[in-house]
Design goal:
Blueprint: E1 2-6, E2 27-34, E3 40-43, E4 46-47, E5 54-55, E6 60-62, E7 67-76, E8 81-88, E9 115-117, E10 127-128, E11 133-137, E12 142-150, E13 155-158, E14 164-167, E15 174-175, E16 180-182, E17 187-196, E18 201-208, E19 235-237, E20 247-248, E21 253-257, E22 262-265
Antiparallel strand pairs: 1-2, 2-12, 3-11, 4-12, 5-10, 6-12, 7-8, 7-11, 8-9, 13-22, 14-21, 15-20, 16-22, 17-18, 17-21, 18-19
Length: 270
């Protein structure tokens, strides 16, 4: 997955027309380049101006197949199920309604609007918030574009003991150890799983709290020397509490689980 962050920044614009809605926050967009025929976890970092989310139909695609062969899978942590939506291009005639909800009436001469629908090309909708991750697959590769207002929040709340697909709430690259946690277990019971689309494998890192003594090195790379009186820094490590590192790109998603729930914080853009 290659990220092409293309941001335009604006706040309240005195030159905005009467039909434009000015934003008190930064607005912009990012393009995420998807690899060829490889399941990829990406995520959203934008919201409607003055709102807290976007809709599935706001995700715009280039290079995707026209006939419902490429798709998105949106995970619901509360039910542990996916909603799958297929991408239908402008050149494809729908079965019931096109993905922009224009009745088709089986007229094969109608050029229908591109967007996301079910297997019959009936439009599907889903609310997608900043910090939410999901799977995407594009058989021939392509780009997915997200746009809107950048959220002012750099935190997400994880449910109790439920695998959740998330991403950084802000459109910026981070490192694994930049992800801070509150309410997580101290002894490596909670974790993050970072997917590598190129190898179709996960890297799993466990959260170790300040009160836990390491086996080799603590997660901030301070030698432990097996001294149980040393208070080690909190962070992400392997099963032996040796620090792990990974670069997380703009728009890259990943799984997280917190047995008792908790709050995840990402670096502030300020």
């Amino acid at each position: 997955m290659r990220i092409l962050p293309l941001f335009f920044c604006s706040k309240n614009n005195p030159a905005a027309s009467a039909t434009e809605v000015p934003s008190a926050n930064v607005v912009g967009y990012s393009k995420i380049e998807l690899p060829v025929n490889a399941m990829t976890i990406i995520g959203n970092q934008f919201q409607y101006i003055g709102d807290t989310s976007i809709d599935l139909q706001d995700i715009k695609c280039e290079g995707f197949g026209e006939e419902g062969t490429d798709y998105i899978k949106i995970w619901d942590a509360s039910t542990a199920t996916y909603m799958t939506a297929y991408y239908w291009g402008d050149s494809v005639d729908g079965v019931f309604d096109d993905v922009n909800n224009t009745p088709d009436n089986y007229d094969d001469d109608i050029a229908l609007g591109a967007g996301w629908g079910d297997g019959y090309q009936t439009a599907l909708h889903s609310t997608i918030v900043p910090g939410q991750g999901f799977w995407m697959l594009a058989g021939n590769g392509g780009t997915a574009t997200f746009a809107g207002e950048v959220s002012t929040s750099n935190t997400i709340t994880l449910p109790v003991n439920a695998m959740t697909l998330v991403c950084n709430t802000l459109p910026m690259a981070i490192e694994l150890q930049d992800i801070k946690c509150e309410g997580f277990g101290e002894e490596g019971t909670d974790y993050i799983k970072i997917w590598d689309a190129a190898t179709a494998t996960y890297m799993t890192a466990y959260y170790w709290g300040n009160s836990v003594d390491g086996v080799f090195d603590d997660v901030n790379n301070t030698p432990d020397n097996y001294d149980d009186d040393i208070a080690l820094g909190a962070g992400w490590g392997d099963g032996y509490q040796t620090a792990l590192h990974a670069d997380i790109a703009v728009g890259q998603g990943f799984w997280m689980l917190a047995g008792n729930g908790g709050t995840v914080s990402f670096p502030s853009a300020e």
